[in-house]
Batch of 2 targets.
Target 1
Amino acid sequence: MPTVSMTVNGKQVSADVEARMLLVEFIREHLELTGTHVGCDTSQCGACVVHLDGRSVKSCTTLALEADGGEVTTIEALSNGVELHPMQAAFKEHHGLQCGFCTPGMVMSVLDLVSRNPDPNEAEVRD
Protein backbone atom coordinates (compact mmCIF):
# COMPACT_ATOMS: atom_id res chain seq x y z
CA MET A 1 0.00 0.00 0.00
CA PRO A 2 1.49 3.39 -0.96
CA THR A 3 2.08 6.13 1.59
CA VAL A 4 0.81 9.64 0.96
CA SER A 5 2.21 12.70 2.71
CA MET A 6 0.90 16.24 2.41
CA THR A 7 0.20 19.38 4.36
CA VAL A 8 -3.49 19.83 5.13
CA ASN A 9 -4.59 23.13 6.64
CA GLY A 10 -1.04 23.81 7.74
CA LYS A 11 -0.45 20.42 9.38
CA GLN A 12 1.78 17.69 7.97
CA VAL A 13 -0.12 14.41 7.56
CA SER A 14 0.91 11.00 6.28
CA ALA A 15 -0.92 7.70 5.88
CA ASP A 16 -0.93 4.45 3.98
CA VAL A 17 -3.71 4.56 1.40
CA GLU A 18 -5.07 2.40 -1.37
CA ALA A 19 -3.84 3.66 -4.73
CA ARG A 20 -7.43 4.33 -5.80
CA MET A 21 -8.40 6.38 -2.72
CA LEU A 22 -9.87 9.74 -3.63
CA LEU A 23 -8.66 12.90 -1.96
CA VAL A 24 -12.15 13.57 -0.58
CA GLU A 25 -12.13 10.15 1.11
CA PHE A 26 -8.72 10.83 2.60
CA ILE A 27 -9.86 14.23 3.91
CA ARG A 28 -13.16 13.00 5.34
CA GLU A 29 -12.32 9.48 6.54
CA HIS A 30 -8.66 9.64 7.51
CA LEU A 31 -8.46 13.24 8.70
CA GLU A 32 -12.09 13.55 9.88
CA LEU A 33 -12.47 16.94 8.20
CA THR A 34 -16.10 16.73 7.16
CA GLY A 35 -16.66 20.20 5.69
CA THR A 36 -15.71 18.86 2.26
CA HIS A 37 -18.71 17.00 0.85
CA VAL A 38 -19.44 14.45 -1.86
CA GLY A 39 -22.54 15.59 -3.66
CA CYS A 40 -23.01 14.19 -7.13
CA ASP A 41 -20.31 11.54 -7.62
CA THR A 42 -19.84 12.88 -11.15
CA SER A 43 -17.59 15.93 -10.59
CA GLN A 44 -20.37 18.31 -11.58
CA CYS A 45 -21.65 19.94 -8.37
CA GLY A 46 -18.45 21.23 -6.74
CA ALA A 47 -19.40 20.36 -3.14
CA CYS A 48 -16.01 18.64 -2.87
CA VAL A 49 -13.80 21.59 -3.92
CA VAL A 50 -10.60 22.11 -1.94
CA HIS A 51 -7.40 23.94 -2.80
CA LEU A 52 -4.37 21.91 -3.83
CA ASP A 53 -1.21 23.99 -4.04
CA GLY A 54 -3.31 27.15 -4.20
CA ARG A 55 -5.71 26.07 -6.96
CA SER A 56 -9.20 24.67 -6.63
CA VAL A 57 -9.65 21.00 -7.44
CA LYS A 58 -12.60 18.67 -7.21
CA SER A 59 -11.45 16.24 -4.55
CA CYS A 60 -14.00 13.63 -5.65
CA THR A 61 -12.00 13.08 -8.86
CA THR A 62 -8.52 13.72 -7.51
CA LEU A 63 -6.61 10.77 -6.12
CA ALA A 64 -5.04 11.21 -2.69
CA LEU A 65 -1.74 10.19 -4.28
CA GLU A 66 -1.99 13.14 -6.68
CA ALA A 67 -1.79 15.43 -3.63
CA ASP A 68 1.35 13.69 -2.33
CA GLY A 69 3.85 16.36 -1.34
CA GLY A 70 1.27 19.08 -1.87
CA GLU A 71 -0.52 21.60 0.27
CA VAL A 72 -4.26 21.10 0.70
CA THR A 73 -6.60 23.70 2.14
CA THR A 74 -10.14 22.80 3.15
CA ILE A 75 -13.03 24.94 4.34
CA GLU A 76 -12.04 24.22 7.94
CA ALA A 77 -8.91 26.35 7.53
CA LEU A 78 -10.75 29.54 6.63
CA SER A 79 -12.30 30.68 9.89
CA ASN A 80 -10.35 31.21 13.07
CA GLY A 81 -12.88 29.37 15.21
CA VAL A 82 -15.44 32.05 15.95
CA GLU A 83 -14.85 34.65 13.25
CA LEU A 84 -15.80 33.70 9.70
CA HIS A 85 -13.47 34.31 6.79
CA PRO A 86 -14.65 37.43 4.90
CA MET A 87 -15.87 35.27 1.99
CA GLN A 88 -17.87 33.04 4.35
CA ALA A 89 -19.33 36.17 5.96
CA ALA A 90 -20.26 37.55 2.53
CA PHE A 91 -22.08 34.32 1.65
CA LYS A 92 -23.98 34.57 4.93
CA GLU A 93 -24.78 38.27 4.55
CA HIS A 94 -26.02 37.87 0.97
CA HIS A 95 -27.99 34.65 1.60
CA GLY A 96 -25.74 32.50 -0.58
CA LEU A 97 -25.95 29.52 1.77
CA GLN A 98 -28.98 27.64 0.42
CA CYS A 99 -29.16 24.41 2.44
CA GLY A 100 -25.45 24.69 3.18
CA PHE A 101 -24.37 21.32 1.79
CA CYS A 102 -22.55 22.70 -1.25
CA THR A 103 -21.61 26.04 0.35
CA PRO A 104 -18.08 24.96 1.41
CA GLY A 105 -17.25 24.01 -2.17
CA MET A 106 -18.73 27.25 -3.51
CA VAL A 107 -16.71 29.31 -1.02
CA MET A 108 -13.50 27.48 -1.94
CA SER A 109 -14.23 27.89 -5.67
CA VAL A 110 -14.89 31.62 -5.44
CA LEU A 111 -11.77 32.16 -3.32
CA ASP A 112 -9.77 30.59 -6.15
CA LEU A 113 -11.55 32.78 -8.69
CA VAL A 114 -10.86 36.05 -6.85
CA SER A 115 -7.25 35.06 -6.21
CA ARG A 116 -6.77 34.87 -9.98
CA ASN A 117 -9.19 37.68 -10.92
CA PRO A 118 -9.86 40.18 -8.10
CA ASP A 119 -12.70 41.89 -9.99
CA PRO A 120 -14.63 39.20 -11.90
CA ASN A 121 -17.72 40.18 -13.90
CA GLU A 122 -21.06 38.43 -13.40
CA ALA A 123 -20.49 35.97 -16.27
CA GLU A 124 -17.14 34.89 -14.80
CA VAL A 125 -18.71 34.37 -11.37
CA ARG A 126 -21.58 32.36 -12.86
CA ASP A 127 -19.16 30.21 -14.85
Target 2
Amino acid sequence: MTTDAGLQTSLAVPARFRGPEGTANGGWSAGTLAGTLAGTLDGAHAIEVTLRRPIPLDTPLVVTHMANSASLAHGGEVLAEAIPVAQDVTPPPFVPFTEAARAEAGFAGLTGRHPAPECFVCGLRDPGDGLRIFPGPVEGTGLIAAGWRVPVTVTEEDGVVPAALVWAALDCPTGWANAPAGGPGLLGRITAQIFRRVYPNGTYSVVARATGREGRKLFGESAVYEVDGTLVAAAKATWLLPA
Protein backbone atom coordinates (compact mmCIF):
# COMPACT_ATOMS: atom_id res chain seq x y z
CA MET A 1 0.00 0.00 0.00
CA THR A 2 1.28 3.48 -0.89
CA THR A 3 0.33 6.47 1.25
CA ASP A 4 1.50 10.07 1.50
CA ALA A 5 3.96 8.76 4.11
CA GLY A 6 5.47 6.24 1.70
CA LEU A 7 5.10 2.59 0.73
CA GLN A 8 3.75 0.44 3.57
CA THR A 9 4.15 -3.28 4.15
CA SER A 10 3.73 -5.40 7.25
CA LEU A 11 5.67 -7.91 9.31
CA ALA A 12 5.38 -9.75 12.61
CA VAL A 13 8.24 -11.00 14.77
CA PRO A 14 7.80 -14.72 15.52
CA ALA A 15 8.05 -15.60 19.21
CA ARG A 16 11.17 -17.66 18.48
CA PHE A 17 13.11 -14.43 17.92
CA ARG A 18 12.50 -13.05 21.39
CA GLY A 19 14.91 -11.11 23.55
CA PRO A 20 13.83 -9.67 26.91
CA GLU A 21 10.69 -11.36 28.19
CA GLY A 22 7.69 -10.74 25.94
CA THR A 23 9.56 -8.61 23.38
CA ALA A 24 11.57 -9.12 20.20
CA ASN A 25 15.33 -9.50 20.06
CA GLY A 26 16.73 -6.11 19.13
CA GLY A 27 19.41 -7.31 16.74
CA TRP A 28 17.10 -9.60 14.78
CA SER A 29 14.44 -6.87 14.56
CA ALA A 30 17.00 -4.26 13.51
CA GLY A 31 18.42 -6.57 10.86
CA THR A 32 14.98 -7.39 9.53
CA LEU A 33 14.08 -3.71 9.23
CA ALA A 34 17.49 -2.93 7.69
CA GLY A 35 16.88 -5.69 5.18
CA THR A 36 13.91 -3.82 3.77
CA LEU A 37 16.43 -1.24 2.52
CA ALA A 38 18.73 -3.77 0.88
CA GLY A 39 17.27 -3.38 -2.61
CA THR A 40 17.98 0.36 -2.69
CA LEU A 41 21.43 0.51 -1.09
CA ASP A 42 25.03 -0.13 -2.07
CA GLY A 43 26.16 -3.12 0.01
CA ALA A 44 29.24 -1.16 1.11
CA HIS A 45 27.09 1.12 3.26
CA ALA A 46 26.39 0.54 6.94
CA ILE A 47 22.81 0.82 8.17
CA GLU A 48 21.89 2.43 11.47
CA VAL A 49 18.77 1.26 13.30
CA THR A 50 17.39 3.15 16.28
CA LEU A 51 15.04 1.21 18.56
CA ARG A 52 12.61 3.63 20.20
CA ARG A 53 10.14 1.25 21.88
CA PRO A 54 10.03 -2.45 22.78
CA ILE A 55 8.86 -4.49 19.78
CA PRO A 56 6.01 -6.93 20.50
CA LEU A 57 5.98 -10.55 19.36
CA ASP A 58 3.51 -12.21 16.99
CA THR A 59 1.87 -8.84 16.35
CA PRO A 60 1.20 -7.26 12.93
CA LEU A 61 3.53 -4.26 12.56
CA VAL A 62 3.62 -1.61 9.83
CA VAL A 63 6.83 -1.01 7.88
CA THR A 64 6.90 2.33 6.07
CA HIS A 65 9.47 2.74 3.29
CA MET A 66 10.65 6.19 2.27
CA ALA A 67 13.35 7.06 -0.30
CA ASN A 68 16.31 5.90 1.81
CA SER A 69 14.81 4.99 5.15
CA ALA A 70 12.34 2.63 6.79
CA SER A 71 10.36 2.70 10.01
CA LEU A 72 8.50 0.12 12.06
CA ALA A 73 5.32 1.10 13.87
CA HIS A 74 2.43 -0.31 15.87
CA GLY A 75 -0.78 1.53 16.64
CA GLY A 76 0.61 4.70 15.09
CA GLU A 77 3.66 4.67 17.39
CA VAL A 78 7.11 4.39 15.81
CA LEU A 79 9.08 1.50 17.31
CA ALA A 80 12.24 1.59 15.18
CA GLU A 81 13.84 3.51 12.31
CA ALA A 82 16.55 2.48 9.83
CA ILE A 83 18.76 4.74 7.70
CA PRO A 84 21.98 4.25 5.70
CA VAL A 85 25.06 5.98 7.08
CA ALA A 86 28.18 7.05 5.19
CA GLN A 87 30.76 5.54 7.50
CA ASP A 88 32.54 2.26 8.02
CA VAL A 89 32.13 0.36 11.28
CA THR A 90 35.39 -0.35 13.12
CA PRO A 91 35.59 -4.01 14.18
CA PRO A 92 37.34 -5.34 17.28
CA PRO A 93 40.36 -7.50 16.42
CA PHE A 94 40.13 -11.14 15.36
CA VAL A 95 40.16 -13.93 17.95
CA PRO A 96 40.78 -17.46 16.60
CA PHE A 97 37.81 -19.82 16.88
CA THR A 98 39.41 -22.19 19.40
CA GLU A 99 40.33 -19.28 21.68
CA ALA A 100 36.88 -17.75 21.28
CA ALA A 101 35.25 -21.08 22.14
CA ARG A 102 37.38 -21.41 25.29
CA ALA A 103 36.29 -17.93 26.40
CA GLU A 104 32.67 -19.10 26.58
CA ALA A 105 33.37 -20.70 29.97
CA GLY A 106 33.52 -17.18 31.45
CA PHE A 107 30.22 -15.97 29.96
CA ALA A 108 28.59 -13.74 32.58
CA GLY A 109 25.15 -15.15 31.75
CA LEU A 110 26.30 -18.59 32.92
CA THR A 111 28.17 -17.49 36.02
CA GLY A 112 25.65 -14.90 37.23
CA ARG A 113 22.05 -13.82 36.73
CA HIS A 114 21.02 -13.80 33.08
CA PRO A 115 18.60 -10.87 32.44
CA ALA A 116 17.01 -12.59 29.43
CA PRO A 117 17.51 -16.38 29.68
CA GLU A 118 15.11 -16.97 26.77
CA CYS A 119 16.94 -14.59 24.41
CA PHE A 120 17.27 -16.00 20.90
CA VAL A 121 20.94 -14.99 20.69
CA CYS A 122 22.54 -15.36 24.12
CA GLY A 123 19.84 -17.18 26.05
CA LEU A 124 20.06 -20.66 27.48
CA ARG A 125 17.91 -22.17 24.76
CA ASP A 126 18.13 -25.72 23.42
CA PRO A 127 20.77 -26.33 20.73
CA GLY A 128 19.27 -25.56 17.33
CA ASP A 129 16.52 -23.41 18.83
CA GLY A 130 18.55 -20.34 19.76
CA LEU A 131 21.97 -19.20 18.54
CA ARG A 132 23.63 -19.93 21.93
CA ILE A 133 26.29 -17.25 21.54
CA PHE A 134 27.92 -17.04 24.99
CA PRO A 135 30.78 -14.50 24.86
CA GLY A 136 33.28 -14.55 27.71
CA PRO A 137 36.51 -12.68 28.47
CA VAL A 138 39.58 -13.39 26.34
CA GLU A 139 42.52 -13.54 28.73
CA GLY A 140 45.01 -10.71 28.41
CA THR A 141 42.78 -8.53 26.22
CA GLY A 142 39.87 -6.16 26.65
CA LEU A 143 37.76 -8.43 24.45
CA ILE A 144 35.01 -10.96 24.94
CA ALA A 145 34.45 -13.70 22.38
CA ALA A 146 32.46 -16.81 21.56
CA GLY A 147 32.62 -19.56 18.97
CA TRP A 148 29.47 -19.44 16.84
CA ARG A 149 28.41 -22.78 15.46
CA VAL A 150 25.64 -21.87 13.02
CA PRO A 151 22.70 -24.32 13.29
CA VAL A 152 20.96 -25.45 10.12
CA THR A 153 17.66 -24.61 11.81
CA VAL A 154 18.18 -20.88 11.21
CA THR A 155 18.35 -21.11 7.43
CA GLU A 156 15.70 -20.02 4.97
CA GLU A 157 14.12 -22.43 2.47
CA ASP A 158 16.94 -21.82 -0.03
CA GLY A 159 19.55 -22.76 2.58
CA VAL A 160 20.77 -19.20 3.13
CA VAL A 161 21.32 -17.76 6.60
CA PRO A 162 19.40 -14.43 6.50
CA ALA A 163 21.24 -11.20 7.21
CA ALA A 164 18.95 -10.59 10.21
CA LEU A 165 20.63 -13.56 11.92
CA VAL A 166 24.03 -11.91 11.46
CA TRP A 167 22.68 -8.69 12.96
CA ALA A 168 21.39 -10.75 15.89
CA ALA A 169 24.81 -12.34 16.40
CA LEU A 170 26.41 -8.88 16.45
CA ASP A 171 23.86 -7.48 18.90
CA CYS A 172 24.06 -9.18 22.31
CA PRO A 173 27.88 -9.40 22.55
CA THR A 174 28.13 -5.59 22.54
CA GLY A 175 25.89 -5.55 25.60
CA TRP A 176 27.75 -8.34 27.41
CA ALA A 177 31.04 -6.54 26.76
CA ASN A 178 29.67 -3.92 29.14
CA ALA A 179 28.80 -6.40 31.92
CA PRO A 180 31.44 -4.87 34.28
CA ALA A 181 29.60 -1.53 33.93
CA GLY A 182 26.19 -3.05 34.68
CA GLY A 183 25.22 -4.16 31.17
CA PRO A 184 23.77 -5.45 28.99
CA GLY A 185 20.75 -3.15 29.55
CA LEU A 186 18.46 -2.57 26.58
CA LEU A 187 19.62 -2.07 23.00
CA GLY A 188 18.98 1.51 21.86
CA ARG A 189 20.84 1.71 18.56
CA ILE A 190 22.90 -0.58 16.37
CA THR A 191 24.83 0.21 13.19
CA ALA A 192 25.99 -2.80 11.18
CA GLN A 193 27.87 -3.56 8.01
CA ILE A 194 27.85 -7.03 6.44
CA PHE A 195 30.58 -8.00 3.99
CA ARG A 196 30.13 -11.75 3.48
CA ARG A 197 27.52 -14.47 3.90
CA VAL A 198 27.25 -16.78 6.88
CA TYR A 199 26.65 -20.44 6.09
CA PRO A 200 24.76 -23.16 8.00
CA ASN A 201 27.01 -25.56 9.93
CA GLY A 202 29.80 -23.00 9.64
CA THR A 203 32.03 -22.01 12.55
CA TYR A 204 32.76 -18.35 13.23
CA SER A 205 34.34 -16.19 15.90
CA VAL A 206 32.12 -13.52 17.44
CA VAL A 207 34.19 -10.81 19.16
CA ALA A 208 33.14 -7.71 21.09
CA ARG A 209 34.53 -4.95 23.26
CA ALA A 210 33.21 -2.10 25.36
CA THR A 211 34.06 1.33 23.99
CA GLY A 212 32.84 3.74 26.65
CA ARG A 213 30.03 5.05 28.79
CA GLU A 214 28.03 8.27 28.93
CA GLY A 215 25.61 8.35 31.85
CA ARG A 216 23.10 5.53 31.27
CA LYS A 217 24.47 4.87 27.78
CA LEU A 218 26.93 2.01 27.25
CA PHE A 219 28.81 1.66 23.97
CA GLY A 220 30.28 -1.40 22.30
CA GLU A 221 31.63 -2.84 19.06
CA SER A 222 31.40 -6.36 17.70
CA ALA A 223 32.44 -8.45 14.72
CA VAL A 224 31.94 -11.86 13.14
CA TYR A 225 35.02 -13.52 11.62
CA GLU A 226 35.60 -16.62 9.55
CA VAL A 227 38.09 -19.15 10.93
CA ASP A 228 40.91 -17.68 8.81
CA GLY A 229 40.31 -14.17 10.18
CA THR A 230 38.29 -12.85 7.23
CA LEU A 231 35.86 -10.20 8.44
CA VAL A 232 32.22 -11.19 7.85
CA ALA A 233 30.38 -8.34 9.59
CA ALA A 234 30.90 -5.55 12.10
CA ALA A 235 28.66 -3.43 14.31
CA LYS A 236 28.64 -0.72 16.92
CA ALA A 237 25.84 -0.37 19.43
CA THR A 238 24.45 1.82 22.16
CA TRP A 239 22.79 0.19 25.19
CA LEU A 240 20.66 1.90 27.82
CA LEU A 241 20.72 1.05 31.51
CA PRO A 242 17.42 1.33 33.43
CA ALA A 243 16.80 4.75 34.98
